[in-house]
Specification:
Largest sheet: none
Radius of gyration: 14 Å
Helix content: 40-55%
Strand content: under 5%
Order of helices and strands: HHH
Distance between the termini: 37 Å
Number of helices: 3
Structural class: mainly alpha
Length: 70
């Protein structure tokens, strides 16, 4: 079968999460692993779910004071 298809799962999620972490570190290199984990888990939501069902990158940036980056 040739072409592309929509996929989901942990291996796909790993690429997305590592990309978000790279963006966070580019914008705020002094972030510690603990701060990054907390930002991802909180995800800008008042009631975080573990693991988060979705990651709102704009909300994460805003929670870190980087709202102008959205």
């Amino acid at each position: 079968k040739e072409g592309y298809d929509f996929e989901s799962g942990s291996s796909l999620a790993a690429a997305h999460v590592s990309g978000i972490i790279a963006l966070l570190l580019e914008l705020q290199p002094e972030l510690s692993p603990v701060q990054i984990k907390a930002a991802l888990l909180k995800n800008g939501n008042q009631k975080p779910t573990i693991p988060p069902k979705t990651l709102d990158v704009c909300a994460i940036l805003t929670s870190l004071g980087l709202e102008g980056s959205c």
